[in-house]
Specification:
By secondary structure, the protein is mostly helical. It has helices spanning 2-36, 42-54, 58-71, 73-76, 82-101, 108-131, 138-150, 154-171, 178-198; strands spanning 209-213, 235-239.
Length: 240
Amino acid sequence: MARTTGRSTTHLTRRLVQLYVGLTLYGASSALLVRAGLGLEPWGVLHQGLAELTGISIGVVSIVIGAVVLLLWIPLRQRPGLGTVSNVFVVGLAMDGTLAVVGDVEGLGFRVPVMVLGIVLNGVATGLYIAARFGPGPRDGLMTGLNRVTGRSIRLVRTAIEVAVVVTGFLLGGSLGVGTVLYALAIGPLAQFFLRMFALPEPGAGPGVTVASGLPSTTAPPAGSGPVAGPASGQAILPQ
């Protein structure tokens, strides 16, 4: 009994460490994309545009937008987890903290590697915090909630949200460029790779199977399909 309790405590501790390390690295990776100056991830474009408009730091803008998006979960009847609420605050704070430490990057020979590092680090961070299974981020929950309520495919809902976010952010002065395109192309494969790397076995699960919440099943639905019917508690079963 004591051995089982010890294993459970260790398992929970590792999940918490993964969650907060992942969220911190996510904020740091977004800050690196800002310093590279070659284009941000879709939501980063919006955050930067609003920061330029309001004079508020981009990290604080990220926190405010995350909180607003989280409020949209109420009519969608989405249930936040520890990871969802932590995402709102930790990412923005880590982003501002990294920007305070990392200065401007001059010269294309330095900016390109910083951009690549930011994108790869974002994939690592995504795999870490999603594999911790404490709930999806506010923006991912908005996507899955709209998918369930509207009956539209995940692909269509995500594309519509991110196009609207990018266009709005760009019109407000956000940075749109090659980094935005590379991020869009690379983040899916990177996140999937690192999600498998950091996935933790569910206590009591059979050998060779891990569980990760916050992502749809790895088997993609056909184009134009309706709501994704995932496993219970928003978890996706990932064969190793």
